[in-house]
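hiii so um. not sure if this is the right channel but i have a protein structure encoded as tokens and i wanna go backwards to a sequence. like what aa goes where. can anyone help
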């Protein structure tokens, strides 16, 4: 379909692949930071959400007992990355 042919951007912190365009979809929907009155508030909220995600995910730090150390390490790298805002 159409989305297989469009360019994607990576979101900060959560590194989600988001299409840059899609017929009939406003860019504010595709790129949520455009819908906020203040990009600073958007990024502050995104950082807050990432920290909460990381705190919650820490409760599963013993997950390697259930899925093995290799898979647990791979899963943990899929979470948010606060350093990505520095790029």
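sure thing!! here u go:
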């Amino acid at each position: 379909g159409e989305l297989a042919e469009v360019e994607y951007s990576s979101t900060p912190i959560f590194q989600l692949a988001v299409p840059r365009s899609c017929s009939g979809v406003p860019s504010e929907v595709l790129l949520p930071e455009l819908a906020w009155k203040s990009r600073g508030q958007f990024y502050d909220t995104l950082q807050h959400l990432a920290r909460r995600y990381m705190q919650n995910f820490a409760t599963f730090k013993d997950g390697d007992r259930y899925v093995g150390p290799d898979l647990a390490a791979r899963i943990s790298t899929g979470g948010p990355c606060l350093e990505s805002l520095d790029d």
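oh and The CA atoms of residues 4 and 15 lie 18 Å apart.
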